[in-house]
Specification:
Cytochrome p450; 371 residues; 15 helices; 16 strands; globular; binds protoporphyrin IX containing FE; alpha+beta
Length: 371
């Protein structure tokens, strides 16, 4: 896919895809332009409505509300709890003698954290995973102009019914969690609608673990493929932050975002009519040579340039701080406790089968000993 991106950046950076009947944007600067202009490029581009697909003014109000729960201070306060969860997961792996970084660490960590924040039973995490995959597949089908398979919509409806039940329980018995916060919040004296509460919880739940899980798996995968980087991080653990940013850039967890044009607009010499779907190829923009030298190489110590992996502008990821912290703690604790960590030769990493998400399904590792 990366060769295709490079060809498109060179030859057709803003391209109308006749099969999918949509526009694809491949260059860093053009992607930033689109994300920076929500009045022309609307986020209201999906049947699966959430805060992420709303435009101002409602988006501004809802985002302000949810952002309170994701303030830098509240996120920093989660650090000891995250360390505790990571250590528990690593202890389990140490005892069993086997570790698949994706399924034993990268996935259970963020799903536990977001379930605790929302106030959902952590035991239901396998259900969350079973619901999130159809939700993502539904969005993918939609972008390909295909009807969304009814079983995917049924899974989303099941998740929504589950979340509504949780929300209703908190109406009478509020607790110190985000679901209660949303249920009892007011915007200009008005409560949120049930639909808004449920869709916001659904967004936080799915955005809160699928992408973080991929970030953790991708970061560790890149470290294991680059022993010289791994050695430096073992010596200077603070360097992990640069490694995570570079992993976000090179193995972009969300490969693209969608927008819809509200008026006819010119972009890089192309006239895009009103009402068109526009895909912003983040995974391509993050490898644009005009923004990053030697863009295809993994080099955590390159001069800092902002990657596009958390988006840009008014919808910039609310969970960026949390996602970065989860990845930092997971990778640092793993490296500190497991000596001689390496890929499992008998069982290579298995990539995810997805066009929108970039990550691994399995990342089995071996090690020499633990501390
Ligand atoms: C928005 C990526 C983690 C919650 C976004 C957007 C991107 C993104 C690209 C922009 C969407 C758009 O403009 O259409 C990522 C990546 C993560 C991550 C790569 C990896 C760590 C999280 C976490 C949470 C979260 C952990 C919450 C717990 C959100 C929310 C929005 C969002 C609520 C919508 C913000 C808005 O519409 O104003 N994310 N995300 N994300 N993300 Fe994340």
């Amino acid at each position: 896919r990366f060769d295709h991106y490079a060809r498109m950046r060179a030859n057709a950076p803003v391209h109308f895809n006749p099969q999918l009947q949509l526009w694809e944007v491949y260059r860093y600067a053009d992607i930033q332009t689109v994300l920076g202009d929500p009045h022309t490029f609307s986020s209201d581009a999906s049947v699966l409505q959430t805060m992420a697909t709303m435009d101002p003014p409602r988006h501004t109000q809802l985002r302000r509300l949810v952002a309170r729960a994701f303030s830098a201070k509240l996120i920093a306060d989660l650090e000891p709890r995250i360390v505790h969860i990571v250590d528990g997961l690593l202890e389990r792996a140490r005892r069993s003698g086997a570790l698949d970084v994706v399924n034993d660490l990268a996935f259970p960590l963020p799903v536990t954290v977001i379930a605790e924040l929302l106030g959902l039973p952590v035991e239901d995490q396998l259900k969350f995973k079973a619901w999130s995959i159809p939700a993502i597949k539904a969005a993918e089908a939609e972008l390909h102009g295909m009807p969304v398979p009814p079983e995917h919509l049924a899974a989303v409806a099941e998740l929504e019914a589950y979340l509504l039940q949780m929300a209703n329980a908190r109406k009478t018995e509020p607790r110190a969690d985000l679901v209660s916060g949303l249920v009892h919040a007011e915007i200009e004296g008005q409560r949120l609608t049930d639909e808004e509460i449920v869709s916001t919880c659904r967004l936080l739940l799915i955005a809160g673990f699928e992408t973080s899980a991929n970030l953790i798996g991708n970061t560790l995968h890149l470290l294991l493929l680059h022993p010289e980087v791994l050695a430096r991080v073992r010596e200077e653990p603070a360097q992990i932050e640069a490694v995570i940013e570079e992993a976000l850039r090179l193995h972009t967890p969300f490969q693209f975002l969608a927008r819809k044009t509200l008026r006819e607009v010119e972009l890089a010499g192309q006239q895009i009519p009103q009402g068109q779907l526009v895909l912003l190829m983040l995974g391509s923009g993050n490898r644009d040579e005009t923004a990053f030298e030697r863009a295809d190489q993994f080099d955590p110590w390159r001069p800092p340039v902002r990657h596009l992996s958390f988006g840009h502008g008014i919808h910039y990821c609310l969970g960026a701080g949390l996602g970065r912290m989860e990845a930092r703690i997971a990778v640092t604790r793993l490296l500190a406790q497991f000596q001689g960590l390496r890929l499992n030769e008998a069982s290579p990493p298995v990539p995810l089968q997805s066009v929108v998400l970039f990550g691994l399904q399995q990342l089995p590792v071996q090690w020499d000993g633990t501390l």
